Amino acid sequence: MSHIKEARMEHLQVLCTIDQEVIGDASRTEEIQQAIEEKRCLLYQSTDNIAGFLLFTNDFFGYSFISLVIVKPSERRKGVASALMKAYMQMAKTSKVFSSTNQSNKRMQQLFHNLGFVKSGVIDNLDEGDPEIIYMKQASPQA
């Protein structure tokens, strides 16, 4: 059995370990910690471990923004990212939810497409030679 829940400080080390496994360093430790403290982090708990997590904000031009989706490499292609994003879409506090990925990240672009997100713009010059594509989806905002 698996479920999605709000991350707590007791999960910080596990989430940081997963993030380090994916990106190769500990550069986002403070960002993850702050998101947990501010209740802006969801995690995917399977029966025996945490398979992934999602960070969000509510200050992207007045809208919700999924800023990070990380899935443990051994748990990829099992619906973890989809489940996290669907869960967040149901709890979003704004009528639209935005997110983004690099042009080179074809898997994430496919996930956005599969979940009904539409392209909303491009930002150049964040990662040299790899534009950031912005996506948007209408949400069911919670009051």
From TrEMBL:
Describe the location of the N-acetyltransferase domain by residue ranges: 2-141
Give the transmembrane region(s): 50-71
Q: Which UniProt keywords apply?
A: Membrane, Transferase, Transmembrane, Transmembrane helix
User: For this protein, what is any one GO molecular function term?
Assistant: acyltransferase activity, transferring groups other than amino-acyl groups
Give the source's domain of life in one word. Bacteria
Pfam families, A to Z: Acetyltransf_1 (PF00583)
Name of the featured protein: N-acetyltransferase
Q: State the organism of origin.
A: Lysinibacillus fusiformis
